[in-house]
Design a protein that fits this description.
The protein is mainly alpha-helical. It has three helices and no strands.
């Protein structure tokens, strides 16, 4: 494994946390947008879709929170190890960083897919209500 410099690891953690914060804000806005959709007269299929997206948005907001907390804890661990181990990190910490990197990018992909499907659903409601 290539040993990345420690300031770069902390910078990545901060970047991830900032982006996760942005995702949280964005997906909370999507929840509010879905509440506006819920005020319309909807068919049974549209209501099923509404429930699906309510559940998915809720689940992904939890996932965003959990990953943000894991990254925060990991960054604190990095700082602790640096101060206690003469500026050295354990292999486990590097491995954990790689795992968080993978989890972050996986979540980002999931959120991109959900966002796309959500807007397609909202658009279908708007089109159906105008026909």
């Amino acid at each position: 494994m290539v040993q990345t410099d420690i300031p770069q690891l902390s910078k990545e953690c901060n970047d991830w946390r900032e982006r996760l914060h942005s995702f949280r804000d964005e997906f909370n806005r999507l929840k509010h947008e879905l509440q506006h959709v819920a005020n319309r007269a909807l068919s049974k299929d549209q209501l099923t879709g509404l429930e699906h997206y309510q559940n998915q948005l809720h689940i992904q907001l939890i996932n965003i929170h959990d990953l943000k907390q894991a990254v925060k804890t990991h960054d604190k661990k990095i700082q602790y190890e640096v101060s206690e181990n003469q500026g050295q990190l354990t292999d486990d910490t590097y491995t954990e960083h790689e795992n968080l990197y993978d989890a972050y990018h996986s979540l980002q992909s999931t959120l991109d897919e959900l966002r796309s499907a959500f807007y397609k659903y909202v658009k279908s409601i708007a089109v159906a209500n105008y026909n």
